[in-house]
Amino acid sequence: MTERSLYKRQMNRVTKELIIFISQGAYAGRFPVVPGTAGTVAGVLLYLAMKGLSPAWYLFWCAVIIAGGTWAAGRAEVLLERKDPPSVVIDEVAGFLLSMFMVPPQWGFVVAGFFLFRIFDIIKPYPLNRLQDLHGGAGVMLDDIGAGIYTNIVLQLAAYLKLL
Question: Taking the model in full, what pTM does it have?
Answer without folding.
Answer: 0.91
